[in-house]
Specification:
Helix content: 25-40%
CATH topology of the largest domain: Rossmann fold
Largest sheet: 9 strands, mixed
Strand content: 25-35%
Shape: globular
Distance between the termini: 37 Å
CATH architecture of the largest domain: 3-Layer(aba) Sandwich
Oligomer: single chain
Strand order of the largest sheet: 2-1-10-9-11-12-13-14-15
CATH superfamily of the largest domain: ANL, N-terminal domain
Number of domains: 3
Structural class: alpha/beta
Number of helices: 16
CATH class of the largest domain: Alpha Beta
Length: about 525
Amino acid sequence: MRAIDFFDRGCLLDPNRALLVDGDSRRTYREAQVLSHRIGLGLQAAGMGQGDKVAVYCPNDMRAFDCILGLLRGGGTWVPLNARNAVPENAYILDNCDVTVLFYHSSFEEAVAVFREKCPKIGHYICIDANGNAGPWLEDFIAGHAGEVPFVRENPDDLWALMSSGGTTGRPKGIQLSNLVFETMTMSMLAHMPAKKPPVHLVAAPMTHAAGGIMSVLMAIGTTNVMMPGVKFPDLMQNIERHGVSYLFLPPTAIYGALAQPDVRKYDYSSMEYFIYGAAPMSVDKLRESIDVFGPCMAQLYGQTEAPAFCTFLSPQEHVEALAPGGKAQRLYSCGRPTLNVPVEILDDDAAIVPHGERGEICVRGNLVMKGYYKNKQATDEVSAPGGWHRTGDIGYQDEDGYIYIVDRKKDMIISGGFNIYPSEIEQVVWGHPAVQDCAVVGVPDEKWGEAVKAVVELKPGATATADEIVALCKRELGSVKAPKSVEIWEQLPRSAVGKVLKKDIRAKFWAGQPRQV
């Protein structure tokens, strides 16, 4: 099945149920279905062909989801564009992914002006909420289009989405996710997290990440999605109570923010069935507190964009059992057990399965795994292992009961607040400061973010620079998400015999005494 077929299934269940609630605006499944056909017809009339790449550049907004449904209806491939990325990074993604159509929100007009110069492959710009400087208002774009997009038979290998992930060089890679990947993700999630009542999903985290994927899956069972522009307190807690929310995804750092609110316990969370956390390790102490505050609804998923979301799962019941008298509390450090249709093993460098308890690379295979990196066979080969295994880059072990524990990362990627951050990209910017001789960027433990980005800098002899200067430089070039949260200036960085900076030694200084190294 195609992703749009799952939406149609949700529409069949109850066409009058609200698919989207955004402030005072509501869109029923049937209304969204009609609109998706109009947008699809408009795109086809504009020349979009089967499989053409279409990007959506917008904050959390119901109209962005309208566009996603429309481009899928018309046979396009969705290219998510993170609103938090620096403009040059998004320009690279658009060009690298061969995007030909861009839906955008009017708040991004300045960025779109850059895209018009840097991204010559884009032939159509469509503003979703107003008459745009670069193209027509969506309402005008679909004017005169009525009826239904002709049905196209499913091809499991056709792309549903082309998502982006950074690499060790910092350049984002296009991750090809097929219809079969979406179908596998949907079946797995709904098997492990069945709805007990008409579901309501609160979309507070960015739609371009896990929240959007979960939103897309849940439409198959007629879920109402309540949109928020971002994680904001006390709005989030109020919306859970007001709308009777049953599904919610947040990265750990946002959960910590909720727990820190002085009035967090005054709201009614009894509707919550699955409070899903993932995208970064979570403090076990904070997890215990979450269960105490929100109830027995905490659920952890583990995956990556290359094998989205549902490689392993730790259910609400398993959380409760771990905390019960005589329970195995250490399981709260795990990311659960392999899901129904995703084989997961711990492999050594030769792709041999290691015994229980021994550390190796977490590897997955099956229909959840991407088709490969777009136009990048070398990178695809680097993460592929004999036997059809996909190497995640995460180091972990499996206990005798099948629970997977993540203990480290094979590469230097930092996960801060649920976002993947690549040190080499930041190092390139820091090196550009005229006073910097050398630097290393590492992730250090942080109670709020899981990991925080730290730059350790060696200055040129006689040169001076302040930490604030370096942070400001990185914010200007990369945006606030990737900028270091702190900077230390050392007299000399540790180096190997051949002069290579020993990043592992630097990282070890900050992680000494921590129960896990991630």
